[in-house]
Amino acid sequence: MLAEKANFTVTRMVRLLEVSRSGYHAWCKRPVSSRALRQERNEQKVTWFHGSPTRSRVHPRRWSNSA
User: Fold this and answer.
1) Which one of 6, 24, 25, 50 is at 20 to 30 Å from 65 when CA atoms are compared?
2) How many angstroms separate the CA atoms of 14 and 8, rounded?
3) What's the mean pLDDT in 1-21?
4) pLDDT of 13 strictly over 70
5) What is the pLDDT averaged over residues 22-44?
6) Distance (Å, rounded) from C-alpha 24 to C-alpha 7?
7) Binning pLDDT at 50, 70 and 90, where does residue 47 land?
8) Cβ of 24: how many Cβ atoms within 10 Å?
9) DSSP code of 32?
10) CB-side exposure of 30: number of CA atoms within 13 Å?
């Protein structure tokens, strides 16, 4: 909902998603859960380990002179 807040009103979004306005505002004020923090750290580790998805990779043996 945060990403679409610039395009739609909160009233319209809560109606379409069938949630209450008070529930939405309470969710916004809530701190990030420990599970969400763990998930974010894991995603960062995977991205670091595998590198940038836009970086092209070539297998090292393809560039070696010994065929």
Assistant:
1) 50
2) 10
3) 89
4) yes
5) 93
6) 17
7) confident
8) 15
9) P
10) 10
Residues contacting 47, CB < 8 A, separation 6+: 53
Sole residue written with tokens 């991205």? 47
* Residue type (1 letter), 51: G
Q: What is the residue whose two structure tokens read 């701190």? A: 31
| Structural tokens at position 49 | 């380990």
In this structure, are residues 11 and 20 in contact, taking their beta carbons and an 8 Å threshold? no
**What is the DSSP secondary structure assignment for residue 8, as one 8-state letter?**
S
Residues, the chain: 67
Give me the mean pLDDT over the 23-27 stretch: 91
Mean pLDDT across the stretch 1-22? Answer: 89
Rounded to a whole number of angstroms, the CA Rg of the chain reads 22
